[in-house]
Amino acid sequence: MKVAVVGSTGMVGQVMLKVLEERNFPVTELIPVASERSVGKKVKYKQEEFTIVSMKDAIAAKPDIAIFSAGGDTSLEFAPLFAEAGTTVIDNSSAWRMDPTKKLVVPEINADVLTKEDKIIANPNCSTIQLVMVLGPLNKKYDLKRVIVSTYQSVTGTGKNAVDQLNAEISGDDSVAKVYPYQIFKNALPHCDVFSDDDYTKEEIKLMKEPKKILGDDTFNLTATAVRVPVQGGHSESVNIEFENEFDLDQVRKILSETPGVVVMDNVKNNEYPMPLYSEGKDEVFVGRIRRDLSQPKTLNLWIVADNLRKGAATNAVQIAEYLVAHNLV
Length: 330
Hints:
Blueprint: E1 2-6, H1 11-22, E2 29-33, E3 42-45, E4 48-51, H2 55-60, E5 65-68, H3 72-84, E6 88-91, E7 103-104, H4 107-110, E8 120-122, H5 126-142, E9 144-153, H6 160-171, H7 202-215, E10 221-228, E11 235-243, H8 249-257, E12 262-264, H9 276-279, E13 285-292, E14 299-306, H10 310-326
Parallel strand pairs: 1-2, 1-5, 5-6, 6-8, 7-8, 9-10, 12-13
Antiparallel strand pairs: 3-4, 9-11, 11-14, 13-14
Helix pairs in contact: 1-10, 5-7, 5-10
């Protein structure tokens, strides 16, 4: 099993290597790939050092699977070339997510849509993944009508430079380049990604479109506000869900607790609820503050937290690869 990790020096790429190792994915040959300036440098995997190769050399090696985390432009240019060489690409960028010819997959929710013919598979947006892990099982039972989500997103979602900015601001260092238009320390920016013509950010648009594709259901409405907060590791979401059908709170908790990959943390008497601090370094999606919306019927409020670099990116991609191997699709 030859596996290429494209973008292996980046923040998500490094976590991908870590997750592949932790989950003991059956890698017989690792092919780390990065930008031209990183070719020849080394990355560590299972206590060994591997030399980073160019995109051209990686394609020529014909890996079985290539996991991409190198940005949309890179994916648009090179993912088809890997696919033409017979490689199955799992892409973590936004490049292919809404392409009607490509599958958008969260394994616990819709891995069964995958076939041998799928040579480019899209990994969803980090905030989308944790959201659909909760929406999926509840939609099956109660039928979604409308979802309102507000996110509280970690600076790790922007990348290493954003982490550097936060840490520099905490220490009072003004010399570090800023990636946000304002300081992030002691602040909250209602601005994740760039603004589109309708005044929504690209992050909000992803959150409004991707869940419908993953769930295979466009009958419900979804709106989003995405906010960047001075947290290092872990995205949080406040979610209001209106259903077509009435629900029982105990049954909601039971459904979610029985969903693979979801952990219910919902004991407010003991101050037990999901937090980014608790999720960091973990693969599960944590849900709590489960309660009725007292302002209207058939409506639920809850709070979802997950590590955006793991389940929100690297782990989900590796889980897709695991499914492909387990079902002889590569």
